[in-house]
Amino acid sequence: WINAQLTPKGIAQADALKPILEKEDFDGVYSSDLDRAIETARHAWGEPVQTASLREIFFGDYDGKPIREVDPEWVKKLYIYPDGFSSPNGETLEDVSKRITAFLDNLKPGRYLIVCHGGVIRTVSRQIGEDRFIENGTVLVVDWSHKKILRSIQS
């Protein structure tokens, strides 16, 4: 949950999404309340409603540490994302899933742009039976009511 800033590459990826997203009409635009997601939303669309519900998984003792400084076995599990995964003194996948599901289930029916983090997107894709690692700068179009991925758009 460190509040890292968006990198120049991230800014370029977000800017590349703007011409794609400006053609769309949304009932709401939400982002994580962490700066990198807020800035991404501002570059790609405009001002989002910010919520802690869309934060990345909390990595506990590993939060903010370079990957080379954490247990290599934990890193393997992070990429596999197995059931029961957690970080020392951090969130479990079940915690993250409950947080995200509660947010999504409380949205009124409609079309929403949600700007968030890879772990959030992966958690959503797992919940609809299509476990995917999504590259930064990708738009994943999801029909949440039918639990279906409709398409992905690369910036």
Task: Write up this protein.
By secondary structure, this protein is an alpha/beta fold. It has helices at residues 8-21, 35-44, 72-80, 93-105, 118-127, and strands at residues 28-32, 49-51, 112-115, 138-143, 148-154. The strands form two sheets. Strands 2-1-3 form a three-stranded parallel sheet, with helices on one face. Strand 1, helix 2 and strand 2 (49-51) form a beta-alpha-beta unit. Helix 4 crosses helix 5 (118-127). The protein is globular, with a radius of gyration of 15 Å. The mean pLDDT is 91.
Low-confidence stretches are none
Number of strands: 5
Radius of gyration: 15 Å
Counting H and I runs of at least 4 residues, what is the number of helices? Answer: 5
Strand percentage, roughly?
15-25%
- Enumerate the strands of the largest sheet in spatial order, edge to edge or round the barrel: 2-1-3
Approximate helicity band: 25-40%
- The dominant shape is globular
Q: H/E order of the elements?
A: HEHEHHEHEE
Helix/strand/pairing category: alpha/beta
Largest sheet: 3 strands, parallel
The overall pLDDT average reads 91
